[in-house]
Amino acid sequence: MPTLFKYRGISAYMYYEDIEKHNLPHFHITYGEHQASFDLEGNLLVGKLPVKKYREIKSIATDYQTEFKKAWENAVIGVPFDKIPIRK
Q1: Cβ atoms 13, 28 nearer than 8 A
Q2: CA-CA-CA-CA dihedral for 31, 26, 85, 32, to nearest 10
Q3: What's residue 1's pLDDT?
Q4: What is the rounded CA–CA span in Å between residue 11 and residue 7?
Q5: Is this model's pTM higher than 0.90 or not?
Q6: Edge-to-edge strands of the sheet including 3-7?
Q7: If you count Cβ atoms within 10 Å of the first and of the last residue's Cβ in the chain, which end, N or C, has fewer?
Q8: What is the pLDDT of residues 29-79, one digit of tens each?
Q9: How far apart are CA 73 and CA 36, in angstroms?
Q10: CA dihedral 73, 75, 80, 84 (to 10 degrees)
Q11: Could you give the CA distance from residue 1 to residue 22 in angstroms, rounded to a whole number?
């Protein structure tokens, strides 16, 4: 489960070759007992997070759009991607 980023208790992952299961570019979040999936623009697809954490994910996705898209392009073809160093 390749890590996309870690930030304030939030862990984000992108799975290699996940496009075979899901065509929509997305990433997975864990925060404590919460789990969710988001599209690359930070819109919630599945799951639930506290409102404050949802807003943080939305902001991160907006600010790091280029990095998320590059990671997705690499992940779907099975190429390792760099962990994104989130600075807020």
Answers
A1: yes
A2: 0
A3: 67
A4: 7
A5: no
A6: 3-7, 10-13, 26-31, 34-39, 44-47
A7: C
A8: 999 999 999 999 999 999 999 999 999 999 999 999 999 999 999 888 888
A9: 21
A10: 70
A11: 16
- Please name the amino acid found at residue 22: H
CA distances from 45 to 14, 27, 48 (A): 14, 10, 9
DSSP states along 19-54: GGT--S-EEEEEETTEEEEEETTS-EEEE---HHHH
**Helices 51-63/65-76 angle, 10° precision:** 80
Distance CA(52)–CA(72), nearest Å, equals: 25
Q: Give me the amino acid identity at 56.
A: E
How far apart (Å, rounded) are the C-alpha atoms in residues 19 and 8?
A: 28
Task: Give the whole-angstrom CA distance, residue 37 versus residue 22.
Answer: 11
The closest of 44, 4, 12 to 29, measured between CA atoms, is: 12
